[in-house]
Amino acid sequence: MTRRFGTGGVAAVFVAAIALAGGGMATRTSGQTTTREYAVKMRFWKATVAGVPTIAVTNLPADAIAYEGETVVFRVTNESPIPEGFAIDAYGIKETLKPKESKTVRVANVRPGAFVIYCQLHPFSDHYTGTLLVLPKP
Ligand SMILES: [Cu+2]
């Protein structure tokens, strides 16, 4: 995978923040349009909480950030042993990924707001949600 990081002021701070959060993120600008790419891995976890075996699925990174009008591309890979979902209602996205499958989800011309990223196949208490946060143009 190639990582391309943005340069200059705010973008650099941005990318650093995301990198610290553990995200595989890259930005690209062509003409007027900036594209932010997130490599999202769906991971399956087993744990024992208070003596009770439990499972969870997390999207890593869970969250994505962009500015209004940009394009956000999620390259999602399902590393869970069962099918998982990737949905963002506000943009009509509802994908299902088989185990080991990867899909590219593109959201063009995003509008400001906080949009829930979730799995439509499992309860939020098992497959944790994330957020696509879109900031107004600086
Ligand atoms: Cu799920």
Topology (elements, then pairings):
Layout: H1 9-20, E1 24-30, E2 33-49, E3 52-60, E4 64-67, E5 71-78, E6 84-88, E7 93-97, E8 102-107, E9 113-117, E10 130-135
Parallel strand pairs: 2-5, 4-10
Antiparallel strand pairs: 1-2, 2-3, 5-8, 6-7, 9-10
The protein binds copper (II) ion.
Care to describe what's here?
- This protein is mainly beta and 138 residues long.
- The protein has one helix at residues 9-20, and strands spanning 24-30, 33-49, 52-60, 64-67, 71-78, 84-88, 93-97, 102-107, 113-117, 130-135.
- The radius of gyration is 16 Å and the shape is elongated.
- 24% of the residues are buried.
- Residues 1-22 have low confidence and may be disordered.
- Bound molecules: copper (II) ion.
- Residues 57, 84-85, 119, 121-122, 127 line the site of copper (II) ion (CU).
Q: Give the distinct bound molecules.
A: copper (II) ion
* Count of beta strands: 10
State the secondary-structure class: mainly beta
Q: Please give the CATH class.
A: Mainly Beta
State the CATH architecture: Sandwich
Q: Using the alpha-carbon principal axes, give the shape.
A: elongated
Unreliable spans: 1-22
Q: Work out the helicity level.
A: under 10%
Name given to the CATH homologous superfamily: Cupredoxins -  blue copper proteins
How many helical stretches? Answer: 1
Rounded mean pLDDT score:
87
Task: Describe the largest sheet.
Answer: 5 strands, mixed
**CATH topology tier name:** Immunoglobulin-like
Domain count: the total is 1
Order of helices and strands: HEEEEEEEEEE
Query: How large a portion of the residues is in β-strands, by DSSP E?
Result: over 45%
Distance between the termini: 30 Å
